[in-house]
Amino acid sequence: MLLRPLREADATRTYYGLTAVSAFAFALCFTLNLVFQYRVIGLDPFQMVLVGTVLEATTFLFEVPTGVVADLVSRRLSVIIGFLLTGLAFVVEGGIATFAAALLGNVVWGIGYTFVSGALQAWITDEVGPEHVSPVFTRGVQVDLVASLVGILGAGALGLVALRVPVIVSGVAFVALAVALLLVMPERSFEPTPRGDRETFAHLRAQFLAGLRVARRRPVVRALLVVSLLAGLASEVFDRLWRVRLIESFSLPDLAGGDEALAFTAIALVGTVVSLGASLASSRWLPRRIVEQHPAIPVAAGTALEVMAVAGVAVLGSLWLVLGCVWLRGASQAFTGPIEDAWLNRHLDPATRATVLSMNGQADAIGQVAGGPPLGALASRTSIPVALLVASVVQAPAVAALLSVRNVPPRPSDEPLEAVRQE
């Protein structure tokens, strides 16, 4: 049963189903998870940031080892293991509700995430074929969004019972999903990855060095790597502590009658809608001439708004102004993300594209691991507003880095990847 289901379902329908359940369960857990960690477990700011840093470090370290299962044994099995570990992690954190349980839960979830990451996309691509997978991914994004909204509402309802309940129910949902996939998830087209194409630590090292050489030649690539690193340095403390900033500094009587579960559910719903609108504005309403010829201008403007939003959360004394800054930051990221991705890709040739894109993600992760604990400790020793203000200052140079390359035209290199690696 581990490698073959009892009854094979249609692959595309299975993909939509697992996307819906996982998106629902993630929203169910994370809408109120940080409020749960603060209120129920009693974590201080440093501990909350440390939990997130442990998660980032775990995913970074286990991406290659867990990929062996997807490459050599079964992508289906890798996905099932990942969802099972994710569910167990959430049940442990919500059920035991201690700092040690939160750390353990995030380690287990980080490992589970790496089992799913890449394997799920590779599985559905194998099953439906590369030429047919694009509309499946597009519909999957739509399914994910709808299920996430339902999960946010579910978190608010279950949070009225107790803040740990949506975390535990989310874990149970992931375990049930893993069992269901074990019974019905098909895998008809899997072939083990050839040795030369497998991800290894030596391969990652070669990718990293090749990416550095590309960045040295391309000012835009270099600038965007710096932007990702600075964003990572600043983001962990904000992502973990903005809710605590609201709880400690403001009362919430005007939001859903003062109940924190409903209040943060409403905040999450508004934030999702605002970010969706910003994403639509970026992809449909912004003139294509600006996106294609002057991408640095909207990306720099969005990054500047993000920096100001973080500073606003730190220093403003009005609840609604602070909430506006929280939503503005999310909208800025949704607005600039697609433009930045397209801009970076235009400055890469096919031989080095995957290498540099992977390195860009690694720069963000390294930034989060390096920046999270110091800023979390600063928040515990001084205050959350001070740590957030420092985070905004740390990220501010990203705006200058973007503007410094606003007039650099795309110049993809024709050099093969091996030439770049061996230089």
UniProtKB/TrEMBL annotation:
Highest taxon in the source lineage: Bacteria
Stored CDD domains: MFS
Transmembrane segments: 15-36, 48-70, 77-101, 107-124, 136-161, 167-185, 262-286, 307-329, 384-405
One Pfam family linked to the record: MFS_1
Entry keywords, A to Z: Membrane, Transmembrane, Transmembrane helix
PANTHER family, A to Z: PERMEASE, MAJOR FACILITATOR SUPERFAMILY-RELATED, TRANSPORT PROTEIN-RELATED
Protein name: Tetracycline efflux MFS transporter TetA(P)
Organism encoding this protein: Terrabacter lapilli
Gene giving rise to this polypeptide: tetA(P)
